[in-house]
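Researcher: Let's run the pair from yesterday's discussion. Sequence first, then tokens, for each.
Model: Starting with the first of the pair.
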Amino acid sequence: MAFDEQQEGVNADELSKSRTGNPRSIQQRTDSESDISSPLPQIPTCCKNLRILDITKCKKLTDTGIEWLVPKTAELSKTLLELMVGCQAVTKRGIIFAVQNCPSLEVVENINMFDALVELARSSALAQPSILNTNITRLTLRPADVYISGQLELVVRFCPSKG
């Protein structure tokens, strides 16, 4: 599997060899069913200042993979602005984990994002209202989804307002 870094050129082999590279954006270039498990744990260590991570074509990525990518202790959790995850094995649980551990996230593209934000809003309203302090700037609503009355109002609380 190869990754495409938009400024410095990074692939999976370079991630495993170099601990000094600091790409700002990584995108998987192939849609093969390759095993993501080998470079995945290295991304938070080697790419501490990563801003954009597009892993939409990683077919074997799971919630556990998301937990490897963005543990609270990783620098990446503080710098990541955009996360694009297309794998169906990443569930609402994985997206909730990413949103909770990456306070700088502005964009999360995943089919479970809306439901994850609804669940976070409901649980935070009961426990910790401060969790609603996020930087989400883009939310895509899917026309095929079923929305229940009041869900949109819960989710927009995650979007920062100017004022």
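Model: Moving on to the second of the pair.
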Amino acid sequence: MDVGSPKRGKIHKGKSVADEGTAMSEQAMNDRQWENLPTNCLVDIFQKLSLHDLTLGVPFVCKSWYEASLDPSCWKILDFKTIDPRPGSEFTEKFKHEYRLDKYQFRGFLNFLIRRSCKLAILLIHPPSQRIPINDLVYILKECPKLDIYNPPLSVKNPGLMRKFILTVHETILRRASYEFM
């Protein structure tokens, strides 16, 4: 045998040992597929995904991924940094297409998030570059009682500040409106 040549596996009925090992590993790969992961493992992974991936990717891969994505713990953190929820944006057009909607309204998207989280969302990350109407912020805050809003850089040192501020401003607006109608 030549010292520089690679070792060859033994031949058994026309197949080498290396070929049999490859066939066995291919079979093992076929037996271990992502959709066969236990739901709790999928949920642990999905909790780390962006809102974009969780709404437009995961639910459309396969039935087991869709079912795992319905777990409310996947929807505890609503990070708007990766999406543009304004009507007409690329995200909303894809959302309309994937969910077969005729029209998109931001309040409808909030309802979608509230339902998916089972009202258990705890954090909405709201970049300063996005303008969300105060009525919509108040709506999601009231629907998800444990929800806090993180609006960098304001919320860094004062957790709960944005929630208190938004609800206080809304109550003030309502009081003023009621005085004007008296």
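Researcher: Give me one sentence on the second I can quote.
Model: The first strand starts at residue 11 and ends at 12.
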